[in-house]
Amino acid sequence: MKNSKTLISLAAISLFIMCSYTPAGLVTGEKKVNSLKGIEVPTNYTIDKNAIEIPESIIFIISDGTGIGQYTLQYYTSEDFAPARFDHVGLVTTHPKDGQKKVTDSAASGTALSAGIKTYNGAIAVDTEKKPVKTMLEVAEDKGMSTGLVATSTISHATPASFGAHIDYRKKEDEISQQLADSEIDVLFGGGSKYWQENLFDQVRENGGQVVSDINEPMNSNSRVVGLFHEEGLTPVYKGREVQTVEMAKKAIDLLDDNSNGFFLMIEESQVDWGGHANSAEYIQGEMRSLNQVVNYCLDYQEKHPNVLVVLTSDHETGGTIVHDGDDGILDIEFAISHHSASIVPIWATGPGAEVFDGFMDNTEIGKALMGYLKK
Ligand SMILES: [Zn+2]
Predict the structure, then answer these.
(1) 280 classed as catalytic
(2) Active-site position among 106, 183, 193, 314
(3) Torsion of the alpha carbons at 138, 139, 144 and 150, rounded to the nearest 10
């Protein structure tokens, strides 16, 4: 990797010495300006929310920290690329409302996706004044729909929390867990049992809910089910995850889908982001395989249940990830940074109302569109 970089820079220097233009007419050796002033971005890339049909149920898959680079990695390292099965594709801006910042965290972006508003980094379903804002999961509850959250992080982590809790700062996971225990969310699957003191599990049981420690335990679709399968986030796929995202998703859908009012389920593939922070292609590859399985499962389900809308998007990209050719047909994965980038991310959708996601939009527009469907 280092060798190829050296070769490239040597070639650039010698071209500059020899002449200032490449055979393609590009100027080489010119002074590059790599810091540019950002502008105030209006949120006026709106989607036409007048869908032809309204879905009965919604499965909203959020792949944390997943941009074009991560999808490219999956595409070129696997026989199967499930996102290609979606009928509609668009592109999404993810910036927060936080000074001049263009890079969001998962809380601000989670809130944009769950409630359709821009807020500051760290905010869990509260606005810039720290006032709670209604989330689509709460709208679904009001309509008598079944609701669920599935994540491979702690269930109190920023993305799932943005759907089921309201708090001024994402790191208050004890309080977020208390709010999730107090809520009426029908299914909670993920990690994070260390933030649930035993009294929270007791509270769930006392209110007729079920607490499980194994995804294969018999579960009752007439009561709440809480399953936290790790003290922290689940084990990364490449290190042997204890319960697969697709198993949690399948079980959640089984539990939720016998409600005649429909259901709302958010599934987060949480750790593509962590692979990006770790600058680890191996980590990302495992998580992307897991995402691929979930997408295939949900789209198979959608084929049999055409009233369900399935949407896949990301809260942001992580790592500035790119895939390029290394030596001898080996792919070389490089990372520009070890945190989130401001890169635009894709959105994919299939089912009633999916056509509104064809185009260029802001992440708040996704929240508004899905909320609009749930209100109808
Ligand atoms: Zn992150």
Answers:
(1) no
(2) 106
(3) -50
